[in-house]
Amino acid sequence: MRAPVTNLKERLTAPNDSLASIMPSAITLAMMLRQRSMATWLRAEFQGYGDDAALPPHRLHIKGEIMVESPQYGWIPAPLNAAQKRGYDGVDIAEGIQALEKTCSNNRRGGSIQIAMPPAQVAALRARLNQGAELTMTVHRDQFNVLLRSVRGAIYLWVRELIDQGMGGPRNAFNPEERAATAHLDTPEQFIQRAMAEGAALPVPGAQVAGILDRLFRRAR
Question: Which residues neighbour 203 within 8 Å (Cβ) at sequence distance 6 or greater?
Fold first, then answer.
């Protein structure tokens, strides 16, 4: 008989187990426990947030560098001072975990990722530049990795609390008493806040970088 909670904790700390491959098991566990808030949050993180969805704080205003396209030099940092950038030097990230992991995997450590800005943000920045140049945002890969580790860390903290409540043993289901005993853990906001605060202290890996053979194979497909 499987020990779903303990097995999930082990997978969350395994560097070669992607978060996208783990999350379906976490969603199933939340449903088994009848923890609706946790299941809803996990699904949104896994699938991505819709256009009308309110994004949680860990996905808002991810800091980046505003870039402008120069006819001579290509993409260069936009000539904006700190006051002109204020409020516009970040982007909201709505994509699901699988897309975020793929983005990180395809970009080397220390690199940056180009992100399209919303039209309203582009218009406001063009007005401040007093020109109609093409604009984009580059976000350091580490910023994506922080987001991914925060989500993974939140699930890890939740699972650890479940084990502390005695839910770590072999089982195929949870009885009403067990569900009631863990109902107070149906608080994804609390766990994501804790994960963001604890950061690198948590024993969870970040996104891996794909090797050259992996990248060539993906291109061939």
Answer: 13, 156
Q: What is the pTM of this model?
A: 0.88
DSSP letter assigned to residue 27: H
For 75-97, write each residue's pLDDT tens digit.
Answer: 999 999 999 888 899 999 999 99
CA 16 remoteness from chain centre: 17
The torsion angles phi and psi of 17, rounded to 5 degrees, stand at -100, 110
Q: How far apart are CA 44 and CA 147, in angstroms?
A: 14
User: Residue 135 is encoded by which pair of tokens?
Assistant: 């604009």
pLDDT tens-digit readout, 137-161: 999 999 999 999 999 999 999 999 9
Facing residues of 179 across strands? Answer: none
Cα(171)–Cα(166) distance, rounded to whole angstroms?
A: 12
Measured CA to CA, the distance from residue 17 to residue 38 in angstroms comes to 21
Half-sphere exposure of 136 (CA within 13 A, CB side): 12
Residue listed under structure tokens 């030099």: 73
Which residues, other chains included, contact 123 with Cβ-Cβ below 8 Å and sequence gap of 6+? none
Distances (CA, A) of 131 to 24, 69, 70: 47, 11, 12
Structure tokens at 96: 């699901």
